[in-house]
Amino acid sequence: HTAEENVHRLEEAVTALDTKTAELKLFKDLPLSEPTRFGLKAGHFSTLTDIQAKAIPLGLKGSDILGAAKTGSGKTLAFLVPVLENLYRSQCIGADAGLGAMIISPTRELAIQIFDVLFKIGRKGHMFAAGLIIGGKSVQEEQQALARMNIVVCTPGRILQHLSQTASFSIDALQMLVLDEADRIMDMGFQRDVDAIIEYLPKSRQTLLFSATQTKKVSDLARLSLKDPEYVSVHETA
Ligand code: ADP
Ligand code: MG
Predict the structure, then answer these.
(1) How far is the C-alpha of 30 from the C-alpha of 126, rounded, in Å?
(2) Fewer CB within 10 A of the end CB, N or C, for the chain?
């Protein structure tokens, strides 16, 4: 099959996916591209966690999501799988395609963890260029790297610096924004930075917001960044 045929078949399968009644247990029950299937298998991911089973189908269909589930419940793949798949299906890949997805994390350590998972499941077969913008390199080095990225994992302060200072940084191709650990983003005082970042981004985008806890500050951020979100939360069952 040609890439176009594969994308077309996936598109149909995603459209047909029933997010209301479908009982999804395994990654292989989802309409995913071959490269992502391969990456998940290589990472020994086969069974969906609860938050993944609820959030990934909605994410694949393009919904905005407000997701809450405790630490360790598998939120990283709940947003990385839709990011990889939605960019793959829209074929915005390669050096000239521009930045398609921005994943914001409160700390450098967490950003590196997300990047490692992205690398693990995305490295084989996917042609995306992904990178980290978390400081620690010169602004100029980061600028050059950013110009080639399709997916960036970043911290709020540093990416805002690029948005406001780098004239050549084009954000027009951005389709997806992820705010991970939104409760910590707010607790660490990044509200103004995130507000300012959102001002730079295209209005017609998909936004996924994940948090370990649901707080007032998180719902404030959600109101500002999400459009008609699907609420997905996983409560512990005793
Ligand atoms: P959270 O962001 O909710 O705190 P993570 O995404 O960091 O959770 O995942 C926590 C741990 O669970 C990680 O070690 C990850 O590799 C593992 N994990 C995530 N999803 C799955 C899955 N579907 N099957 C098995 N292990 C998983
Ligand atoms: Mg996490």
Answers:
(1) 18
(2) C
Q: Quick check: 137 and 115 in contact, CB under 8 A?
A: no
Pocket mutation for ligand 1, best pick of 47, 49, 83, 110 (most atoms within 8 Å of C-beta): 49
The rounded percent of the chain whose pLDDT value lies above 90 is 82
Angle at 125 between CA 120 and CA 128, to 5 degrees: 75
In 3D space, the residue among 47, 30, 48, 147 whose CA is nearest the CA of residue 85 turns out to be 30
Task: Name residues with Cβ closer than 5 Å to ligand 2, which is an ion.
Answer: 75
At residue 125 the predicted structure's pLDDT band, cuts being 50, 70 and 90, is: confident
Contact 104, 156 (CB under 8 A): yes
CA of 48, closest atom in ligand 1:
23
> What does the pLDDT look like over 175-213, one tens digit per residue?
999 999 999 999 999 999 999 999 999 999 999 999 999
Question: What's the whole-number average pLDDT of the chain?
Answer: 93
Cβ–Cβ < 8 Å for 214, 68: yes
The residue written with tokens 């970042």 in the block is 197
